[in-house]
Amino acid sequence: TGHHWGYGKEDGPSSWYKNYPVAEGNRQSPIDIVPNEASRDRNLGPLMINYDHCTSINISNNGHSVVVEFNDSDDRSVIKGGPLDNPYRLKQFHFHWGGKGHEGSEHTVSGKGFASELHLVHWNAVKYKTYGEASTAPDGLAVLGIFLETGDDHRWLHMITDVLYTVKYKGSITDFKGFNPKCLLPSSLHFWTYLGSLTTPPLHESVIWIVLKEPIEVSEKQLGMLRMLLFTEEEDNQKMRMENNFRPPQPLKGRRVRSSN
Ligand SMILES: NS(=O)(=O)c1ccc(NC(=S)OCCc2ccsc2)cc1
Ligand SMILES: [Zn+2]
Which of 4, 64, 107, 158 is catalytic? Predict the structure, then answer.
């Protein structure tokens, strides 16, 4: 079903254009963010994140990442303000990470990568009826990107890393209710924002990217838990460790990156 893609030598980011020609489009993500080339924009109001009535449903391994899905049938968990004209509903979050001691973030800052990157995926339920419809519209999605750097243990990330063993294999899914991702936010909501795309196939150019400047700290041990996940299914006798599931930075193609004040 659909086109097989991955992060390996044969099916990785440099070959995605064959089945997904938009990979060579004009607003692809991620990008390298160069802070002193970003323009401060006073029209950018503060980001408003309201995750209090959090409605996480499950956690799963989709063969590309570990994904926590949310109930997005109403506006309980939304992000608004900043570059957004409407509130965007939280649909899922997932991570991208590297191998032992290697970088694994998707966006880079002046060429510097981070150990991992968390993506909180939201959709514009004011203008579009479903996530699927929004995911192909130029203002359909808003993804909040948060860098993870190695340091102290993250006390709340344990709630996720402690259950990863239940979703070790591709296609596994477990109940995961009542998790509030607010606990994964850094103290500052200062951000960079630009128009981009999904960083995995189908690579739709439908994302308003909001990348927080302040990383969160997680321990090497916690990152190691992400790396015990597998790209492969339980019955697959070839066990492929899930790591380096990140796309490298793509050409800016004249886009402007704006910075919050
Ligand atoms: N990495 S990303 O945040 O740009 C992003 C967001 C949504 C999607 N949407 C879909 S349907 O992806 C399915 C595969 C997937 C999900 C999480 S990571 C890869 C893909 C990538
Ligand atoms: Zn992502």
Answer: 64
Query: Is 107 among the residues known to form the active site?
Result: no
Percent of the chain as helix, strand, coil, to the nearest 5:
15, 30, 55
Check: CB of residue 118 under 8 Å from CB of residue 95.
yes
Enter the pTM of the model. 0.98
DSSP 3-state of 207: strand
CA of 135, closest atom in ligand 1: 9
Task: Name which residue sits closest to atom 8 of ligand 1, judged by CA.
Answer: 198
Residue pair 218/150 in contact by the 8 Å Cβ criterion? yes
Q: Around Cβ 252, how many Cβ atoms within 10 Å?
A: 18
* Cα gap 134→206, rounded to integer Å: 8
CA nearest ligand 1 atom 7, residue: 198
Beta bridge partners of 194: 209
How many A from CA of 112 to the centre of ligand 2? 18
Nearest in space to 37 (alpha carbons), one of 143, 112, 110, 144: 110
- For 157-215, what is each residue's pLDDT tens digit? 999 999 999 999 999 999 999 999 999 999 999 999 999 999 999 999 999 999 999 99
Q: Is 143 in the pocket of ligand 1 (CB under 6 A)?
A: yes
